[in-house]
Design a protein that fits this description.
Layout: H1 6-12, E1 16-17, H2 21-38, H3 45-55, E2 58-59, E3 64-65, E4 69-71, E5 77-79, E6 84-85, E7 89-92, E8 97-99, E9 104-105, E10 110-112, E11 114-115, H4 120-124, E12 127-130, E13 133-135, E14 140-141, E15 146-147, E16 152-153, E17 158-159, E18 164-165, E19 174-176, E20 181-182
Parallel strand pairs: 2-5, 3-6, 4-7, 5-8, 6-9, 7-10, 8-13, 9-14, 10-15, 13-16, 14-17, 15-18, 17-19
Antiparallel strand pairs: 1-12, 11-12, 19-20
């Protein structure tokens, strides 16, 4: 059996080298796409939605992503129907990010799947990994919140503005603060 490629390792959430040529090419394609997408802010909504479908893994009907928007690869991002991402959202999608139907995400929110080894010697080798993020249906995430690697946010939850979400959020819960705690 052949050794997995660095991209396969990345997509599996294993340690990988982001400097691998295939990964670098994918990131470059995403940079070029985000430049086109971010320049399309005055184009009709249907045109912007078609652009989203070019790069993202899946896009539900009526999903809106207000430019500027930034991501690592795009193809790991899955948006449900009616999802709304406000200005300046960043999604580091080295592994899958799923955002459920009707979820609203405020400006400046960062969704970060990228992770790094805790051991300094291992980290110094340039290895990194990712842990998937799942955000349920009808979630409201306030502006400037950070969603860290591996977090799952349940349906109907609320995340207060500026919160740093370090662990799973149960369905229907309201969390806020740094680190985010249930209110």
């Amino acid at each position: 059996m052949a050794e997995p490629t660095q991209k396969q390792r990345m997509l599996n959430g294993d340690l990988y080298h982001a400097s691998d040529p295939e990964i670098v090419a994918d990131h470059q394609a995403a940079l070029e796409w985000t430049e086109r997408y971010n320049a399309a802010s005055t184009l009709p909504a249907a045109t912007r939605e078609a652009l989203l479908r070019e790069m993202l893994g899946s896009v539900g009907a009526g999903a809106v992503v207000r430019p500027p928007f930034h991501c690592d690869y795009g193809y790991n991002i899955h948006l449900g129907s009616g999802v709304f991402l406000n200005f300046n959202c960043i999604i580091l999608d080295v592994v899958k990010v799923v955002i459920g139907d009707g979820t609203q995400i405020g400006p400046g929110v960062q969704i970060l799947t990228a992770d790094h080894p805790r051991d300094p010697a291992e980290r110094a080798t340039g290895l990194e990994s990712g842990r998937p993020i799942t955000i349920g249906r009808n979630v409201w995430i306030g502006g400037g919140a950070l969603i860290l690697p591996g977090v799952t946010v349940g349906d109907d939850a609320i995340i207060g503005a500026g919160s740093v979400v370090t662990r799973d959020v149960p369905a229907g819960a309201t969390v806020a603060g740094n680190p985010a705690r249930q209110r």
